[in-house]
Design brief:
mainly alpha; 192 residues; Receptor-associated Protein; rod-shaped; single chain; 78% helix; 8 helices
């Protein structure tokens, strides 16, 4: 009798969890059957501008510290970076080569939050005449610090997000190994 009660309890738990988990697993099945996906050869991985911003600021600072004019420093930076920062900096370089005011040329960078501090530093330096290399080095350090803080926040939240799958795995095992035998033993002693 106790064995039948335990089997019924296990079946009820299994069916209850299966009705909630099954549809989610069925959604994964087609992607698992399709095999690994290979990206198209013409598509290169796009790096987030937040990762590129410190490098852009460092390259500009080094080139300007070496005595290069802004157009040469910007060309070196464009050649060394990948998209999406490359396309944004190419537009700035093209505008500067056409004779646009640096304030106008760099204003197009404001829609990129990661590159915005660099653009503001260049515009501020253009208006004030202050040396730009030190400000760009500070902007690179700030960008690295902000990115590191964001990564640490994501890493800390990973533990919190891992609780639900672990509970989904361990709770049924705890019930089957710990609770069901106790209930079966208790039911067996009460019924005898």
């Amino acid at each position: 009798m106790a064995l039948a009660a335990a089997v019924l309890l296990v079946s009820a738990v299994w069916i209850g969890l299966g009705s909630r988990v099954g549809p989610r697993l069925n959604g994964l099945a087609p992607s698992l059957r399709a095999g690994p996906t290979v990206p198209a050869p013409d598509s290169a991985p796009i790096v987030a501008p937040a990762l590129q911003a410190p490098m852009v600021a460092d390259l500009l600072a080094v080139a300007l510290s070496a005595g290069a004019p802004m157009s040469v420093a910007l060309q070196v930076t464009v050649d060394a970076t990948d998209d999406p920062s490359r396309s944004v900096l190419q537009r700035v370089l093209a505008a500067l080569e056409l004779g646009a005011d640096p304030s106008v040329a760099w204003a197009g960078v404001f829609d990129q939050p990661a590159l915005e501090p660099i653009a503001r530093a260049v515009i501020r330096s253009h208006h004030s005449g202050a040396p730009l290399a030190d400000v760009l080095e500070t902007a690179a350090a700030d960008a690295r610090h902000a990115h590191r803080a964001e990564i640490e926040t994501c890493a800390r939240s990973a533990g919190v997000r891992a609780v639900a799958p672990l509970a989904l795995c361990y709770l049924p095992a705890y019930l089957l190994v710990g609770v069901v035998p106790v209930i079966a033993g208790f039911a067996g002693s009460v019924l005898n």
